[in-house]
Amino acid sequence: MDVTDTRTILINDDVPDLPAIAERMATTTARLEADFSKVESKIHRFPGSLRGIGGDNDRYIVPSVVAIGPYHHGAPHLHKMEEVKLAAAYYLCGASGRSTAEVYEKVRSVAGAARGCYDADDPAVVGLGDAEFAAMMFLDGCFLLQYMVAGGDVEHDATALVLQNRMTLSTGPSIQKDIFLLENQIPWLVLDALAEFMFVDVGGFVTGMGDKFLPFPRKARKPEDGRCCRRGMRCGCIPTALAKTTRPSDEESRGVVGSTEQHKPPPPHLLGLLRFTQVGCMPDNKKNYTGVSSSWSSSAVELAEMGVVLTPRTEVWFGDMSLRRRCLYGELSLSPVFLSDVTACWLVNMAALEASTAGAARDTDGFVVSSYLSVLAMLMDRKEDVHELRRRGLVHGALSNKQALGFFKGLGQHLRFGRRYFTALEEIDSYKRHRSVRIKAYKFVYNYCKFIAAFLSVTGVLIGIFKTLLSLKRHC
């Protein structure tokens, strides 16, 4: 056999099995497309690319008091709350007038679909049998609904008092933080199944939680498209019977979508509903900015030097921002935000949710909250910038200037920039290009205003002395 023949044999032996590869290509693509079609309804792990914004010891990722769903189920530090879940389920079944078996069977009937909302290959899910998974959905769902009414008007029997104490008084804001973590969710369909036995105004509850972002109560206002009343609350914008404020009729109950907008799918989980309450009522022209990318960036102090005044917006949706050109100055308006450890945690997890579901909505890039946080991070280079934002009423809360600066700069290093972020930069860039002369004049006045004020003050004193001397001379 000559060299040519040997080479030919080697090449032929090295040729892959093309039909097998083609089949793998087709099946893998079909699986990926199927997974992507469910990306909005899935319950995701916190994205690895965003782990840097998870806080010290992952405090914005890992629950501190209660595990909801399988991802943190069984963690030793969360064991005590499992007893409270049992009490919550006992109270819900008793208050409904139905047997525990009947309520559990209702949840078990949707447990298979609920399991499909988690990553089937995740070790936390693989390790749970079907019966154990159904029991977990039952207890976690009962716990969430009972927590939502724990502070309300319930009969003050021993069970109610135990629940109120263990759920609200002894845990502080920890549960509020935990139930809106990305990795600590159960599918909406579980809560929807339990709605047959216990009506809870879930939409109203989540609305109240979302209002913690606001430094002050925001007045009701009807948005431009007339879809809803107050930040999407207590109306057809929250699209399930659970979100209504009055007990649904028999025809509307058991998971039927509200009559106002029946085409709206239900939220995937409580975190999804929290984000929806903040941006869901934003008109499409506000969501879908199409600005040009710009390399410009400016801190709050730099904008002040340019004559751009920062003002808080009062729109009914969260995360709004725009720059207007006034006669003598510019005005950059943003939604104000109240920062606490709880609201900071929610902001991180809404941004993580956006990153996990990116591209699912074709009409928008989906990074509404992320864009807003990125703009705030851009405005903060030093503690003086945070002070300027506080002075202008854009940032509120108990966090110090140093803590707020560290939080937002940490976010800015990891978040993806959405269209609205680039549009905000383009508006600033355009302002700089079209008002360069005016900016120079304003910058001079801004930087030397103290000197000018001191000079005018001294001049005024000298003029006063001169007038006094002149008056004395006339009387001599």
Secondary structure: number of strands: 5
The number of helical runs is: 20
User: Main sheet?
Assistant: 3 strands, mixed
| Helix/strand class | mainly alpha
Report what the structure shows.
It holds the Pfam family DUF247. The chain crosses the membrane at residues 451-470. Residues 246-268 are annotated as: Disordered. InterPro entries: DUF247_pln. Keywords: Membrane, Transmembrane, Transmembrane helix. The structure is a single chain. This protein is mainly alpha-helical and 476 residues long. The chain folds into three domains: 3-37; 48-282, no CATH class; 286-434, no CATH class. It has 20 helices and five strands. It has a three-stranded mixed sheet with strand order 1-3-2. The protein has a two-stranded parallel ribbon with strand order 4-5. Strand 2 and strand 3 (330-334) form a beta hairpin. 39% of the residues are buried. Residues 6-11, 152-156 and 220-263 have low confidence and may be disordered.
